[in-house]
Amino acid sequence: MQDILDLIGQTPLVQIHDDQIPAEVNLLAKLESANPGGSVKDRTALGMIRGAMERGALHEGDKIIEATSGNTGIALAMIARQFGLSMTLVMPENSTQERIDTMKAYGGRVILTPAEKTIEYSRKLAEEMAEEEGYYILNQFNNPDNYKIHYQTTGPEIWEATSGDVTHFVSSMGTTGTIMGVSRYLKEKNKAVKIIGAQPSEGSNIPGIRRWSPEYLPKIFEPDRVDYTREVSRRNAIEHMKTLARDHGIFAGMSSGGAFSIARDLALTLTNPATIVFIVCDLGDRYLSSGIYSE
């Protein structure tokens, strides 16, 4: 018999069938939406909470605070309760209602900050509240447990599921925990594996992908672990998000559409046998009220 936390990880790889992609190129989607909380951030939340408790920094009954743009908050709200912890989430007020309500459904307390101040202000407020009001802050942007869980789980899963044939890995970059952890693992196995990061083009607002100002660049991010980055526009991310749902049966969010856009473009340019894996970060239903499906 399993408990809910045992269901985190071991997510499937799904083949993307596209007649325009050369037959010798495999394009595979890693469905992190299959995690019980619906996103890749289930891994991050579990890694950070479990790590803090194992070190004795957190104890049952403690209260945690964290800034989030959505998925991490949902995962933390779900997992914190399983460890007897109180969870407060700080997020911009323009977050979708589905995300806010889901956090509350899992028992989280939500504090909304002005949209125009972005997630960077949410981070600042969470840090201030942690210092002044006795909250424990996990600080996903600077917490090594963020990338370590992907080194321990996501990377090995990709390597094993592809029988070591993976040649390229594509991931959206937000906190950068996923791409940092997977890069570490895959490069240890095969230095030739290419790691590609997706970031929004100038002026594009894509939930889950960020262009951080230097002051707020995640400290866990090591540029040398990414072979190259590719920019994606909001319009292109939305277009490919819709293609994932319509043509491939994968209902995902905009950041997944961005990663798919870059992975597919890459697949179309390759002439040698290759296996490209991209991350499907989350479920699309938490974006319905944003109106992006009608854009």
From TrEMBL:
Listed pathway(s): Amino-acid biosynthesis; L-cysteine biosynthesis; L-cysteine from L-serine: step 2/2
Residue positions binding pyridoxal 5'-phosphate: 71, 174-178, 255
Database matches in CDD domains? CBS_like (cd01561)
Tell me the InterPro entries matching this sequence. Answer: Cys_synth (IPR005856), Cys_Synth/Cystath_Beta-Synth (IPR050214), P-phosphate_BS (IPR001216), TrpB-like_PALP (IPR001926), TrpB-like_PALP_sf (IPR036052)
The processes (GO biological process) annotated in the record are:
cysteine biosynthetic process from serine
The chemistry this enzyme catalyses reads: O-acetyl-L-serine + hydrogen sulfide = L-cysteine + acetate
User: What residues bear N6-(pyridoxal phosphate)lysine in this entry?
Assistant: 41
Q: Which SUPFAM superfamilies match?
A: Tryptophan synthase beta subunit-like PLP-dependent enzymes
Task: Give the domain of life.
Answer: Bacteria
Q: What EC numbers are recorded for this enzyme?
A: 2.5.1.47
Question: Which keywords has UniProt assigned to this entry?
Answer: Amino-acid biosynthesis, Cysteine biosynthesis, Pyridoxal phosphate, Transferase
Q: Which PROSITE patterns match?
A: CYS_SYNTHASE (PS00901)
Q: Domain named Tryptophan synthase beta chain-like PALP: which ranges?
A: 5-282
* Cofactor(s) required for function per UniProt: pyridoxal 5'-phosphate
Q: Which family does it belong to?
A: Belongs to the cysteine synthase/cystathionine beta-synthase family.
Q: Which PANTHER family match?
A: CYSTATHIONINE BETA-SYNTHASE (PTHR10314)
Q: What is this protein called?
A: cysteine synthase
Q: What organism does this protein naturally occur in?
A: Membranihabitans marinus
